[in-house]
Amino acid sequence: AQSVTQLDSQVPVFEEAPVELRCNYSSSVSVYLFWYVQYPNQGLQLLLKYLSGSTLVKGINGFEAEFNKSQTSFHLRKPSVHISDTAEYFCAVAGGYNKLIFGAGTRLAVHP
Amino acid sequence: GAVVSQHPSWVICKSGTSVKIECRSLDFQATTMFWYRQFPKQSLMLMATSNEGSKATYEQGVEKDKFLINHASLTLSTLTVTSAHPEDSSFYICSARLAGGWGTDTQYFGPGTRLTVL
User: Fold this and answer.
1) Is the dihedral of CA B92, B43, B63, B32 positive or negative?
2) Which residues in chain A have Cβ-Cβ distances shorter than 8 Å to B49?
3) Which of residues 36-75 of B touch A (CB under 8 A)?
4) With 90 as the cut, is the pLDDT of residue A90 above it?
5) Kind of pairing, strands A10-14 and A56-58?
6) What angle do CA B36, A29, A62 make, to 5 degrees?
7) What is the rounded CA–CA span in Å between residue A111 and residue B37?
8) DSSP 8-state assignment for residue A62
9) Contact call for B93 and A43, based on CB within 8 A
10) Exposed/middle/buried for B74, CB within 10 Å: 0-12, 13-18, 19+?
11) Which of A1, A55, B45, B78 is the most buried (most CB within 10 A)?
């Protein structure tokens, strides 16, 4: 069975600082991984996804993530955050029957 | 890009009434739609998978008679919360998926519907 663990429930960071949001997964089948962002009272927006190929995946808004099979991780990074990046971030793994299995989420709070 | 809408965006109802939430894919046909429930400051929990023209597949622990799902067309799925109670208050989010594998599509999420049952 697939599962996702987001290791940090909250990550405070100052504006223009780098940030890493951690995600570990468990999957017994082919691994497809996703990062979504959710702004308050809104649905989810896809940041990036890993399906195959290069382990470094670049997404929107300057985010990138690296797939590490040996460590079963898919950490999300951004070299310099903005106030507007304050949101909830969800890591997800594709499960059977086209399902997405989400982690508990990480709240990124960017401070001036 | 693919757009998914939900209606209403928020609804307040009295305990015991039923509420219908619509999920529409605006510019693509979705053979599969998903319904999620999100409690405050928590993750999304999949409630059911809805396939056009067939019965929905519910996740373990989700009451089929409580949460009625109808996927009548390739662009519309509805979730009806029957005899709603305060504990049903939550943020309900739908997503729509294009036909094909993960390499050619992804799930597109609606903006969510906040249900408050008094």
Assistant:
1) positive
2) 97-99
3) 41-44, 46, 49, 57
4) yes
5) unpaired
6) 60
7) 30
8) G
9) yes
10) middle
11) B78
The residue assigned the tokens 């067309």 is: B73
Rounded distance, CA A97 to CA A89, Å?
A: 24
Chain B: give the shortest CA distance to residue A16, in Å. 26
Residue B44 to residue A102, Cβ atoms within 8 A: yes
Nearest Cα to Cα of residue B5 among B96, B115, B104: B96
d(CA A71, CA A55): 13
One digit per residue, the tens of pLDDT, for chain B of length 118 reads 678 999 999 999 999 999 999 999 998 888 889 999 988 878 889 999 988 888 899 999 999 999 999 988 889 999 999 999 999 999 999 999 876 555 545 788 999 999 999 9
Residue type (1 letter), A78: K
